[in-house]
Amino acid sequence: MHNIFEQKTFIITGATSGIGKATALEALLHNANVSVVARREKELKEIFSPFPRAEIIPADITNDNDRNRIVEKTLSRFGGIDVLINAAGIIGMGSIENTTMDNWDTMLDVNLRSLFRLTQLALPSLLDRKGNIVNTMQINSLDIHFP
Length: 147
Fold this sequence. Notes:
The structure is a single chain. The chain has 147 residues and is α/β, with parallel strands linked by helices. It has helices spanning 18-29, 41-48, 64-78, 101-128, and strands at residues 9-13, 33-38, 54-58, 83-86, 132-135. The chain is built from 4 helices and 5 strands, in the order βαβαβαβαβ. It has a 5-stranded parallel β-sheet, with helices on both faces. Strand 2, helix 2 and strand 3 (54-58) form a beta-alpha-beta unit. Helix 3 packs parallel to helix 4. The chain is globular. The termini are far apart.
């Protein structure tokens, strides 16, 4: 059976938990090259150090320099990007009455702006290699009923 991940290069954000972690491990087990990205360096190393095809990149995806470094390190080590998986995200807890504008801006920055900018940076290589982009989203909802 042909392994579609073999020799493909992934960038996966949010790699220390949830969908990001599970996807990164699965790709590595299928011989993909994977740049694993998350803020928590210790956890990245604990999870991914055993995998020689993992490029461990501790980074804050809301930071321009970190986003540039993610793409540059991936291109430098693996020569291109085939798949970008934007799995990093945060869920804001609270209601419209008690969510501050700072909290709202942080959610937008992590869940939307950084995803958009990282995609822009990876796009030239993704287009060249006819790659793929996968965006995951955090879901949090609250039913509000007015009397």
